[in-house]
Amino acid sequence: MKTAVLGAAAVLAASGTAMAGVNPWTNESSQTMNFSGPLSPFDTTLTFDQFDDSDPLVDLIGVCIEYDLTVTARVTAENDSVLPAPDFAVNLSGFADFTFGGLSDTAAISTSAAQGVGPSDGTPDSGPDFHDFGLLSDSASGGDDQYFVGLGPYIGMGTIDATIHAEAGFSVSGTTDSTIKTTDFMVEGSVTIIYKYVPTPGVASLFGIAGLGVMRRRR
Q: Is residue 207 in some structural domain?
């Protein structure tokens, strides 16, 4: 199957139909792992396989990390001031750091919800000074890549770890005194590692010649 793929790529390159700037030889393999847990903070390690270099016919040329995450919490807030708070709001903000060998990226989390409330009535968790904001959430995605240099740590028959560190918190605005309560404060998401590889130069040349031969015979 691998030979068929390489042969097809060679024919594509020889026929001149490959897109400019795109290496027609590039293949890739990927691994995806999920994560979840309570905030804050959140720390976890995901273990991925290294790129198996036991096949002498291919060379690793690039490594990519891609991720997505969502932070959620159920939030209630109460105005404890004697003054009304027409601009009463809760604000969620935080970040998550992703590291995989020499790759790293940071995702930012930020969202808010607003609901005007009255002055404190002295009764906790109810009344016109209290609001249940329900489930607040924000999501982010991103990644990083590395090509051609510094790929040694990713190559072998073992494993390599991706680490995730996330922190987030809530604040209240629109009043000088308040009480905020959060439950089910969680982060969840996934990390995908992509290895990009090509045939070794000798193999690429061999199949390139074979592809040109096929084109000539068809003519």
A: no
